[in-house]
Design a protein that fits this description.
Blueprint: E1 3-7, E2 10-13, E3 18-25, E4 34-39, E5 46-51, E6 58-60, E7 68-73, E8 78-83, E9 92-98, E10 101-102, E11 106-111
Parallel strand pairs: 2-11
Antiparallel strand pairs: 1-3, 3-8, 4-5, 4-9, 5-6, 7-8, 9-10, 9-11
Length: about 110
């Protein structure tokens, strides 16, 4: 049974930073591309970033390029999302995703 557990969300002022973590279990973590998505109130879930099984190969949504960094620690089965220069429009529930499985989400709220 694959489980994804996110943590690290919270309330932050615009311009601030947060680091999200997603701990995975029930799969051979290093074999899979890991991704982050987000869903703001009243909007569809959207892609944020992903990272290949080979660390260093990453993809970002245009809206977060230059501000967010995705990374992974295969020894700890964990993927991270470092979010800097946060904006109110980054407010959303952030979800970890792998191979059709979703985490429960963690709320990020950015105040102006």
């Amino acid at each position: 049974q694959v489980q994804l557990v996110e943590s690290g969300g919270g309330l932050v002022q615009a311009g601030g930073s947060l680091r999200l973590s997603c701990a995975a279990s029930g799969l051979t973590f290093s074999d899979y591309i890991m991704a982050w998505f987000r869903q703001a109130p009243g909007k569809e879930r959207e892609f944020v970033a992903n990272i290949n099984w080979r660390p260093g190969i990453t993809t970002y949504a245009d809206s977060v390029k230059g501000r967010f960094t995705i990374s992974r620690d295969n020894a700890k089965n964990t993927v991270f999302l470092q979010m800097n220069m946060l904006k109110p429009e980054d407010t959303a529930v952030y979800y970890c995703y792998v191979n059709t499985y979703w985490g429960q989400g963690t709320q990020v709220t950015v105040s102006s």
